[in-house]
Each structure stands twice: as structure tokens, then as C-alpha cells.
Amino acid sequence: METPRHAPQRQFAVADDCLRLGGLALTRLAERVGATPFFAYDRGAVAARVAMLRAALPSGVLLHYALKANPMAALAQHLAGLVDGMDVASAAELRIALDAGVAPAAVSFAGPAKSHAELRCAVAAGALLHLESEGEMERVAETGAQLGLTPRVAVRINPNFELKHAGMRMGGAALQFGVDEERVPAMLQRLGRLALDFVGFHLFVGAQNLSAGAIAEAQSHSVNLALRLAAHAPAPLRLLNIGGGFGVPYFPGQCELELAPIAAGLERALALLADTAPQARLVLELGRYLVAGAGIYVCRVRERKLSHGQVFLLTDGGMHHHLAASGNFGQVIRKNYPVAIGNRMAGGPRETASVVGPLCTPLDLLADRVELARAEAGDLVVVFQSGAYGPSASPAAFLGHPPALEVLV
Ligand SMILES: *Cc1c(COP(=O)(O)O)cnc(C)c1O
């Protein structure tokens, strides 16, 4: 089995045959957690990731964390001290961001079909509302009138260009997200007559992109489009959130995203904004890019089993905790996440094995015929790149097994 050119497991230390996280041997960590399966997130790795990104990008760019990627409260609190704001998509996420200590003005709330209660919470808190439709604009204005507040709003644009090479497309087509670009001028005219504080624009056209060229191109299109539409806005542009979509390597052959071409494009964007919209701050919102590599999922082998000559490691973990690693979180072709036997990291006999969970469905497959250290009952299977879209994106209630624990170390 080919290993990724930038094997994610390399960012964790190994000592005495055992993977280490936050200075702690995995076997020791498992004892401390007290049960498997669990997700563990390395706070040092998250901080290092944000620092690396800040060093690579122009300093004028603001970094937001998209809480959807991993809403664990302790992790959110850690990130609150590292980023410039957070993007939320529900009242529950809004609460997590505010509890984590993010300034309300630095929280933005996106997502279609927001409830009346969600709008009230967001307006009352002073968060920035990303308007996903003309109808929502009217409802936000009504909410503001009811509360005696002037809601801060940004218009989410659904642009006519598409993001190439994106793992998941969220713009440039008929979609429930944002307002089609040709409708935005009329919407802005109406917005100017409502008691709303226009702050700027939001664009998010796709996620999990590993092509720096495609991202830079989409960002350049986004800035140009926003500046054209700003001519119709009732107030100067103060904020331009051009999304993110920075991907991470999950599968064999994938590489870390190259940041230099993106940084060069952002330098040009900042220069253009300085000339034409001097009050505008440029925001990137990133989810998985900040946290995926810092997290692992750990489950324990309960039994080895042979079927038709193939080795199956039957574990206590599975797709009910980690849907994405099972290949069922929107992937078109199932591929293996990087996995290892976390307490047998050096030497020893190896074999080809499949890692499965306890669910009564063949979909419950964490690794399909990968090369691993030969494992026995009691050994710890580690799935890397698991810091994003883990428990909160998995069907925990399916078949009624216990949920996974989560720890920040
Ligand atoms: C999902 C989402 C994100 C985060 O996507 P990642 O791929 O995790 O970076 C950011 N912004 C919006 C609007 C989203 O819907």
C-alpha cells in the first residue's frame, strides 16, 4: 500500500514502538481516557498549524474557523485564542463560539433555512448574519425591528463561476446557498431601504480542494465580483469573506496544499482592496485545514478473524463515530484514510488486513485491505486526519452502540 507523500502520521512522534500525542504515549493516553474508542486532538498541532498558515499568508488576511468542522467546546476555546473569528451555522454552534470567548462581532452565521429563534439569537448577540436569500433578508429586518436592534448583515453571493477541483461544490450552480449574482444588485437596493447594517459579502464556492491554482483563481474571481457588486451596496464594503475550501490530504498520492500561489493571489487582492475599498477586511474561513491533521481516532481490536483468507480486525469503533473514514460522508469512491496500529509503530511483522466495526452493515469499514503491523486483540487502531468531520458528522445513534469520547491533549 502506497503511503501519502506527506504521510500525516509523521507529524506525531513515536517512541518505544508507540505513537505519542501531546507528549503522552498512546497506550497511556488510552488508560487515562479510560475507554475506547476516542478522538484525541493535539492542541500543540492545532497551534502549529495556525502559525504555519499565518506565516505563509499575507498578514492583512483575517483567519476565521468554521466551527462545523469540529465543534468540540474545548477545541473551540483553544482556537478562539488563535484565530480572528468563527463561522457558525446553527444556534448551537453560535453558543459554542460565544462560550469559547469569541467576540460576538467576530462571529458570522451562515446557512440556509435559519429558524426564527436562530435569527433572534444571532441578532441579539450582535453576530454577523450571512444572508442566504432575499426572504431571509426580510426576516432578519423584521427580527431587528422586534428586538429594537439594527442587524449586521453580509450578503452571501452564489457566483456564476465554479471552483474547479473541489471535493464538494457549494457555488456556481443552482444551489440553496447564497443569492445568484445577477439578483444581488436588486437585493442590495432593497437592503438599503431596510433597517440593516450592510457590512459586506460572503462567498464560499467549495470545500476540500487540493489545487492551489484553482483556489487562487476562485479567490481572484470572488474579489473582482464582490468589488463589482459593491457599487450597488448601500454602504462601503467593510468585510469580504472569500471562503476557503483549503483541502487536506486524506488518501494515498494526495499532497499538502501549496500555499505560495494562494498567498501571491491574496497579496494582489489586498492591494486591489486597498485601492478600491480601503475599509474592507479580507477574511478566509477554514474548517478542516486547521484541525483535521491534529486529530486521531483510536479504537481497540476485539478480535482477529479470517474470512476467505482475508484478515479482519474487528474493533470497538466504526462508522457510527467516523462516517468520513468509512467513505460514506459524500465520497464518490471509497478510499482508505491513513491508519496504523498505534502501539506497534516500529518494526515487527506486517500483514494486509481490513479494519471493521461492530455495526451490522458492510458499510462499517474503517480500512479496506491495508498494510498494517500484525495486530492482536487489545491493540489500538489509529485513524489519522481525524480532527475534522468526526463525531459531529457521524450517525452516532445507528445501532445504539456507545458514543466516542473526545479529548484535547
Ligand atoms: C463547510 C463550510 C466551511 C468549512 O469547510 P472546510 O472544508 O472544513 O474548510 C466553511 N464555510 C462554509 C460556508 C461552509 O459551509
Main sheet overview: 8 strands, mixed
Q: Specify Rg, calculated over alpha carbons.
A: 22 Å
What's the helix count? 10
Spans with pLDDT under 50 lasting ≥5 residues? 1-5
Q: Write down the CATH topology of the largest domain.
A: TIM Barrel
- Give the beta-strand count: 22
CATH class of the largest domain, named Alpha Beta
Total domain units: 2
User: Mean of residue pLDDT?
Assistant: 95
Q: What structural class do the secondary elements suggest?
A: alpha/beta
Query: Beta-strand level of the residues, as a percent range?
Result: 25-35%
Distance between the termini: 30 Å
Report on the architecture of this protein:
It is built from ten helices and 22 strands. It has helices at 26-33, 43-56, 73-80, 91-99, 116-125, 134-147, 184-191, 212-230, 260-276, 288-291; strands at residues 14-15, 18-21, 24-25, 38-41, 61-66, 85-88, 107-109, 128-131, 152-158, 166-169, 179-180, 197-202, 206-209, 239-244, 281-286, 295-307, 310-315, 339-341, 350-356, 365-373, 380-383, 405-408. The strands form four sheets. Strands 4, 16, 17, 18, 19, 20, 21 and 22 form an eight-stranded mixed beta sheet that branches. The protein has an eight-stranded parallel beta barrel with strand order 5-6-7-8-9-12-14-15, surrounded by six helices. A three-stranded antiparallel beta sheet has the order 1-2-3. The chain starts with 13 loop residues before the first strand and ends with a strand. Mean pLDDT is 95; it is low at 1-5. It binds pyridoxal-5'-phosphate (PLP). Residues 66, 68-69, 87, 110, 204, 207-208, 243-244, 285-289, 388 line the site of pyridoxal-5'-phosphate.
